[in-house]
Amino acid sequence: MDYGPAPESTKEAQAWLDQHERRFGLFIDNAWTDSADTFASTNPADGKELAQVSQASGDDVDRAVAAARRAQPGWVALGGHGRARVLYALARLLQKHARLFAVLETLDNGKTIRETRDADLPLAARHFYHHAGWAQLQSEEFADYRAVGVVGQIVPWNFPLLMLAWKIAPALAAGNTVVFKPAEFTSLSALLFAEICQQAGVPAGVVNIVTGDGRVGEAIVNHAGIDKIAFTGSTEVGRIIRKATAGSGKKLSLELGGKSPFIVFEDADLDAAVEGVVDSIFFNQGQVCCAGSRLLVQESIEERFLAKLRARMDNLRLGSPIEKSVDIGALVDPIQRQRIEGLVDAARAEGCTIYQPACDIPATGSWFPPTLITGASTSAGIAQTEVFGPVLVAMSFRTPVEAVQLANNTVYGLAASLWSESISLALDVAPQIKAGVVWINTANQFDAACGFGGYRESGFGREGGKEGMYEYMTALSEDARPALPVIEAKGKAKPAEAPGPFAIDRTAKMYIGGKQARPDGAYTRAIVGASGAFVGDVGEGGRKDIRNAVEAAHKASGWAKATSHNRAQVLYYIAENLAIRADEFAARLAAMTGAKNPEKEVQASIERLFYYAAWADKYDGLAHQPPMHGITVALNEPVGVIGIICPNESPLLGFISLVAPALALGNRVIAVPSEAYPLAATDLYQVLDTSDLPGGALNIITGSADELAKTLATHSDVDAVWRHDGSLDGCAEVERLSAESLKRTWVGGGKGRDWYDTKQAGGRAVLAHASQVKNVWIPYGV
Fold first, then answer.
1. pLDDT by residue (tens digit) across 579-614?
2. Max CA pair span of the chain
3. Where are the active-site residues found (predicted)?
4. d(CA 723, CA 247)
5. Active site members
6. Torsion over CA: 123, 128, 129, 135 (sign)
């Protein structure tokens, strides 16, 4: 018995293309432009042209942004219910025209009709339904936030319609208008979506779709009229966008590449795990950013598991994507096939074993057979490079500890899949994997209610879930920030006493690993108070001091594993010990800054420590109930090691307001205190020593904010950098330099912040910068 032909009819899709004479303009301000400069969109399965699509110009992007800007106030004024009705209409129309969308997507992309019909379309509709709900609830659930404004969105070719839904649905729900650029190879489903926007009553200018190559994306990224960029694509392009937007004030979210581990423990259901591998790496021909491309199998079952996997690969059917019984379709373009072939050939040359089942490769189109590679070292190119094709690299491990080490041996951190019949083992390993999504005994599960996004070079930001909505909003407290740093009125400071001939050197040292340390370069800098008198010396920190602090921070990883109650207790202790020495700190602030009421800043600092101690065990995650037999647990995890450049205004309160939330959530911190008034922070050493804070959890390096910020931003073992010293150029440089490792940044730009105002210096908006969400999918009874 064999499969008979069961092709899905393409009649409706071909008729739609013919209706447009197979030429498409741009969709701007609810109208279609003439198709002047065009390029061909082809079917990857046979290389035949489907249609001519317009190449947008810079002027076209200008017109699209202008239309979006005009439409945005009216779209907000429509209200949550009004936007919910439009989003609901879009969801219903996607369902109504699901067959047309699915067939068109298969023709344009090369993925199988089973995937477009059974996965892409239902999920796309689900996103619009889900976000219609968020629009309806926005005034209650996001009362302290507003829409960002005009959003530029750029998506890849692997999930054209689904990526559109992931991007446009939350943006519209929040009250933004969009300029959307589909991938050059796969623009047709976005153009069909533009038509249903007209049918659904989307107001003119709210959704604008501009097609073309990378020049169009570049114009969107660099456009001064766009308030946020949302990009899904390669890590290389993500770096370019991070550099291009540095200092612009644009909000940015990046969902980039991956090299995701697929871990099979010896007690796993091996047959189920084999099917999981097929779903993970051969789905969409492996052209999936979260594909489980690294198979890690426990040594005791390796041979048996790989034998089962090879047998399953032998039964995979490769062929026309429009056939309902086909498992693997065509790659999107010959260029992609050539790249995959090159990586596999390189692995073969390195001595790896290549297994490919016998397949009848069609004579025309872009095809590549399912491939299993064994014998690769952990540092081999094929084990570290994102192939973006149906290529799986397998290696073994002995213990769960080794499995975690191998899983995290990558610059990426997008997803992981764990297979074990021991839920205790799975739930122990899941938090240790550095990835934004972890599937237990399942793979490639997605839902609009559950956030998706990565760590490290897989980008930052989340798609879906409540955290995905925040990506398209700005806290109202940001609008209330002062244009310039707020400097407290000065009084007459008491001059510092001149040192006697036998005075002991009181130079404030660094604080690294819980100990005071002299600066590596042995240089010091004099601090002069408000009266002009000498107040004290501080060390001039440099690159090696940052290196030592980063090493100490990584050794203090136990702080991240401490209970939230324990972290809260330590912050309370710090506040208690600071209160005991309040007069001493007030006198120091008065001598340095000349503040009229330094006691106010000390008391506010104590209160801020209590505030974040209170949050430490209350900033909980969520449990989602997606449409599967199970739950998804959204965990708020610490970012890791955070470098913080503290403000000059309110030097004690500003320091505490930034360091405390980072510590409360389990991060380890390298803090650079106020360059002008650092003694407010160095005086804290003894407070910290008597407050049970583990060595290395907080490290303090004094010196030049500009120089130390550069070092932190370029350090590969620093996970995030915050800069809030009011330096516009310095903040831009932090964003630009962070692009290499794609670390997260939070900068104040050239504006100030009222550190006494809890809305500006506290709350969930601040805690979100100190955490990242990991979604762990836990099915029931499987």
1. 999 999 999 999 999 888 999 999 999 999 999 999
2. 101
3. 255
4. 12
5. 255
6. positive
